[in-house]
């Protein structure tokens, strides 16, 4: 499944300062659907090059990191249970910096 | 979760019932679309401004602008509301250059862009000009602990200096609800009763050189970031390189965890802060003036003068630590050296009013 990921608010620094990533992920073997719950650890393993604790805490993103799927707050689509589809755009924005 | 519904086409905005919901407001848990979000966001800030009588027509207002998310959104929204509701204000951008390479120089570029994008005149004041020291030089001397103490103290004065140079009536800053809730908890953790009683006021310093206001006092950080994101506002977003050691970081982490469980906690902490009453028998520091520079101070010398003296005499610990209440010993023997000036020392700013 092709997805586009965007990192903002300083998170891009964790991925070699690259803001936009076009990736290809396959759902887990037994499940047919790819959810955010699976995508997050994939990102941590494959894209996050340093300080993973700035991106994730436990199973989810670090509190203070906003997540938008196709420009919609993931709180509306069930957060970790959000189902991802082909060509979806996922945006991660950190709010944890000076204003 | 909604079984067969595709998340993307899921909900309609609970306000207009017409467009697709784009975010969930932490304040109210409402699910609303972009357009309604812009409207409630801007309208709530307008109400805060009006109900708290923050401005008077004809006033000159400096917006403390760092190029970061809060001050950029503040400049944008205030500009817009000034036009829309005829506040009659003369707005300026005021920026402080602490001299932190790789952080401040980049964010100042953003403010310069904001100056053009929003059409607001910009003034920059620097620590180097005002105090003879950049933060980088200070950190070289004192190491990585306590930098934020220096920077915070110097910045407050720097903003006042800048505001005086611009001849403005008030200063506004982008402190948001999350920031204020953090400050309330920070002051509780430190037992700083004096600050605790002041930190939730939407306007402070009315008895000092320049009153300061925080129109975003009840605005959630999440909403500020969402607003900036949807509107594609240009802001700079990197953590200050010296900040990982700041105490506030722990409180911020705590508040973010709280917000996840119960988003209203942030506003509720502010409410608790507003409604605290100090026991009548508690001794509070009295506010007077610094003997060296005249700035407002509850000690003989203001904090900036003490810190600066420490830097210039190679005593980086001067003014740091628990010696708060009766801390005049260092001042007694430094008074004699008042006349000593070296290449790097400067008075911390006599304010002419």
UniProtKB/TrEMBL annotation, chain A:
**Keywords for this entry?**
Cytoplasm, Isopeptide bond, tRNA processing, Ubl conjugation pathway
Q: Where does the UniProt annotation locate this protein?
A: Cytoplasm
Domain of life (superkingdom): Eukaryota
Q: Residue positions of the PTM 1-thioglycine?
A: 99
InterPro entries on file: Beta-grasp_dom_sf, Mopterin_synth/thiamin_S_b, Urm1
Q: Where is this cross-link: Glycyl lysine isopeptide (Gly-Lys) (interchain with K-? in acceptor proteins)?
A: 99
The name under which this protein is listed is: Ubiquitin-related modifier 1 homolog
* Organism whose genome encodes this protein: Olea europaea subsp. europaea
Automatic annotation (TrEMBL), chain B:
What EC designation does it have?
2.7.7.-
Gene Ontology molecular-function annotations: ATP binding; nucleotidyltransferase activity; tRNA binding
Amino-acid positions noted as binding ATP in the UniProt annotation, renumbered to this chain: 64-66, 70, 96, 174, 179
User: Carries keyword Nucleotide-binding?
Assistant: yes
Residues in domain Cytoplasmic tRNA 2-thiolation protein 1 C-terminal?
Answer: 288-318
Q: Give me any GO biological process, just one.
A: tRNA wobble position uridine thiolation
Domain tRNA(Ile)-lysidine/2-thiocytidine synthase N-terminal, by residue range, is 61-253
Q: Can you cite an annotated GO cellular component?
A: mitochondrion
Which pathway is this protein engaged in?
tRNA modification; 5-methoxycarbonylmethyl-2-thiouridine-tRNA biosynthesis
* Compositionally skewed regions (Polar residues) per UniProt: 336-353
Compartments reported by the entry: Cytoplasm
**What does the UniProt keyword field contain?**
ATP-binding, Cytoplasm, Nucleotide-binding, RNA-binding, Transferase, tRNA processing, tRNA-binding
Q: What InterPro entries would the database entry show?
A: CTU1-like_ATP-bd, CTU1_C, Ncs6/Tuc1/Ctu1, Rossmann-like_a/b/a_fold, TilS/TtcA_N, tRNA_thiolation_TtcA_Ctu1
Region feature (Disordered) = 323-353
Task: Look up the domain of life of the source.
Answer: Eukaryota
Instruction: Name one matching Pfam family.
Output: zn-ribbon_14
Q: What family does the Swiss-Prot or TrEMBL record give for this protein? A: Belongs to the TtcA family. CTU1/NCS6/ATPBD3 subfamily.
Q: What does this protein do?
A: Plays a central role in 2-thiolation of mcm(5)S(2)U at tRNA wobble positions of tRNA(Lys), tRNA(Glu) and tRNA(Gln). Directly binds tRNAs and probably acts by catalyzing adenylation of tRNAs, an intermediate required for 2-thiolation. It is unclear whether it acts as a sulfurtransferase that transfers sulfur from thiocarboxylated URM1 onto the uridine of tRNAs at wobble position.
Query: Which PANTHER family does the entry link to?
Result: ATPASES OF THE PP SUPERFAMILY-RELATED (PTHR11807), CYTOPLASMIC TRNA 2-THIOLATION PROTEIN 1 (PTHR11807:SF12)
Q: What is this protein called?
A: Cytoplasmic tRNA 2-thiolation protein 1
Record the organism.
Answer: Olea europaea subsp. europaea
